[in-house]
Amino acid sequence: MLQSVRFEVTLAGTISSTGSHSIIIPDEIASAFAKAGHKRIAIKAFFEDKVLDFHGALHFYKGQYVISFGKGYQKKLGIFPSDYFELQLFEDQSKYGVEVPEALQAVMDSDPEGFELFDALTPGKRRSLIYYISRFKTEQTQVDKALIIFDNLKRGIRDHRELVKSL
After folding, report:
1. Structure pTM?
2. Using CA atoms, how far apart are residues 50 and 101, in angstroms rounded to an integer?
3. End-of-domain residue from the set 91, 123, 139
């Protein structure tokens, strides 16, 4: 498995398309992942006694490699824009480029037809729906939202805004 050494970073400016802060990844580290064809990566961030695991995309933006690092991640890690912290990059070995919540996995396992339709969506739409379900705190709410999405997929709905609405 491809992985980098730990390296020091700080927050850079914003990525205009996402509005979140970016982190510049040194060329010698990023190029190894880019050359191996890994656009999505697993990331581990370290600050003081905190460790944060997340997934992201390695972007080539304005002549340098960057990853997005939103305010939610900044808050979880307890950093401010002027702080220096460490990152380590890993080859993303997850199926969807993001961790699947247990509640969603349970719905996938119990509904083969819905899972097949979900799995046929574009990678970005699948990740978006996984993030949507992940944001709910209770497993029951995650299950309820996943069931709504799977039911809507079986009804032929593909528009993201409509997929998450209960009928």
Report:
1. 0.77
2. 22
3. 91
